[in-house]
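Lab notebook, bench 4. Continuing the backlog of folding jobs that were queued last week. Each job is logged with the same field layout so the records can be merged later without manual cleanup. Today's entry covers DUF4252 domain-containing protein, a 184-residue chain. Filled in by technician R.K.

JOB TYPE: sequence-to-structure
TARGET: DUF4252 domain-containing protein
LENGTH: 184
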Amino acid sequence: MKIKKFTIAIGMVVCLLAVAGGLSPVNAGNGFVDPEPFIDLGGEDDLTLEISISGALLKMISAGLAGADKDLADTVAGLHSIHAVILTMDTEAKQLRGQELLRATEKRLRRGAWDRIARVNDDEGNLSVWIFGTEETVDGVTVLIRGKQDGELVFVNIDGIIDLSKLEELGESLNLPGLDNLKD
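JOB STATUS: finished
OUTPUT FIELD FOLLOWS
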């Protein structure tokens, strides 16, 4: 699996969910991971993409989807927020700071009882997918990606209740690594 393709797939999922609903850290749940350290890492020239959806916008998206796709509307209704930051780190110093931030974030997730369900290290970069939740639901999903060649750094956090069977379906439809581990 190519890290770049996965980055594009994650960006598309976040954008689709963004168009379908809204999120805000004010209503943050247990699955919220603050995107600010990633936003702060990059300057205006480095920031490639920043998405933050919460609250009323998510409710409007859910209501708009109710007639067309009830399952997706229900999924969006259970979310508190969606945050994504994609940075292109163009210097070695920035790439090292980005790598340190990813390590610190993974350490914080481990201490916070998050479970890493997928990890990919290849010539193109590193990817890890983390979930937080119970045996029945996922209360948060965080994806961290570092591209080795292009210096790309990706942070995605979806905070809210996500039924494991729906997450599994999403993983199957987008061929996301590790999500097949959620099967009984």
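OBSERVATION: The first strand starts at residue 47 and ends at 54.
SIGNED: R.K.
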